[in-house]
Amino acid sequence: MNYKKVLFVVERDTITGKIKSGPALRLKYGVDGYKFLVKEDKLSQSRYVRNLSFNTMTSLYMLLKALLQRATAVNGDFDFVHAFFWTFYRYRKPWIHENDQSPSQLIFNYFKMRNGFGQKIVEMIAKILNDSQAVITWTEHAAKGFVNDGVEKSLVHLIPPPIEAKCNKKEHNNINVLFVGRDYYRKGGDIALKAMEKILKKRNDVTFTYVGKAPIPEHPKIMHYEGLSRKQLEDIYETSDILLYPSRDEAYGLAVLEALSYGIPVIASNLPSLAEIIDNNLDGYLANSEEDYLEKLESLINSPDRLKSFSKMACKMVKIKHDPKKIGEELKKIYESIC
């Protein structure tokens, strides 16, 4: 079989050292008739962009990174490029850009650069993206963001990440609540801890697992892991019943999608991106405040039938929205349009 060759430009996670989850999922399931050649963006491996938190060094590093990339031509024995996130080399072949958020959503929301300089950066990125053959993103919210930023509407395509619905949770006794997030404040680690401390005072049959760096109090019902391998995290998913995800800002939330794929209902912040992953009142809840989090968490813990129903619906919705075969067919249409 003759394969078209795709140069797959990816970044590695600065904590785990693995390819970031979004491109890793595309690689895992692939596209019929296409062979991926992986090119790692070494410039993404910096402590200055570890948590996407804005400071002077972050800004200077990302500006230098962009200048170095634009000064570097990329060519070779491949048919086209599929580049992820903030990698903008001068590609000598047709190229596709994929991202979970638009330029303004990163610059204005994550880096808080709501000024003239930030706007200039957004305009510069949009101009670069208009030279691509397609821009792939994961939510309607992000797609609208790209268009509002100045990217041609005809270039923007919504193709969410592919993932299999596993739904193979292991039998266990307690109700296990999970939090996953390395950025303590942005991911709402403090909100999750406050809610769980109140729950644990009332219930002896509930445990809490916190994955991420945080000041966790000693408690016999709280398990804390600063870093886990993929296999270790999967083992925790298999014995978890609820995911708490009180993020203050979120481009997408792959941890939410992963939890749903294991049949774990999610209680998450009512943010535009998360509202597209979670079906409110069907496979989880969207919360609007700390009090709302606690109320919805107590409601789900106190209703075994609802928890079971949400779990089944989570698996069903993942199969419908994120089926790897269907997602692969959608991506193939984009590939075929530029070959």
**Euclidean distance between termini CA atoms:** 17 Å
Kindly provide the radius of gyration, computed on alpha-carbon positions and rounded to a whole number of angstroms.
21 Å
Classify the secondary structure makeup into a structural class: alpha/beta
Label the CATH architecture of the largest domain. Answer: 3-Layer(aba) Sandwich
What is the global morphology? globular
What's the level 1 CATH class of the largest domain?
A: Alpha Beta
Residue-averaged pLDDT:
91
Contiguous helical run count: 12
The biggest beta sheet reads:
6 strands, parallel
Q: How are strands sequenced across the largest beta sheet?
A: 2-1-4-6-7-8
Low-confidence stretches at least 5 residues in length (pLDDT < 50)? none
Instruction: Write the element-wise H/E pattern from the N-terminal end onward.
Output: EHEHEEEEHHEHEEHEEHEHEHEHHH
Please describe what this structure looks like.
By secondary structure, the protein is α/β, with parallel strands linked by helices. The chain has two domains: 174 residues, Rossmann fold (3-Layer(aba) Sandwich), CATH 3.40.50; 147 residues, 3-Layer(aba) Sandwich (Rossmann fold), CATH 3.40.50. Helices cover 40% and strands 18% of the residues. The protein is built from twelve helices and 14 strands. A six-stranded parallel beta sheet has the order 2-1-4-6-7-8, with helices on one face. Strands 11-10-9-12-13-14 form a six-stranded parallel beta sheet, with helices on both faces. Helix 5 links the parallel strand 7 and strand 8. Helix 3 packs antiparallel against helix 4 and helix 6 crosses helix 10. It starts with a strand and ends with a helix. 37% of the residues are buried.
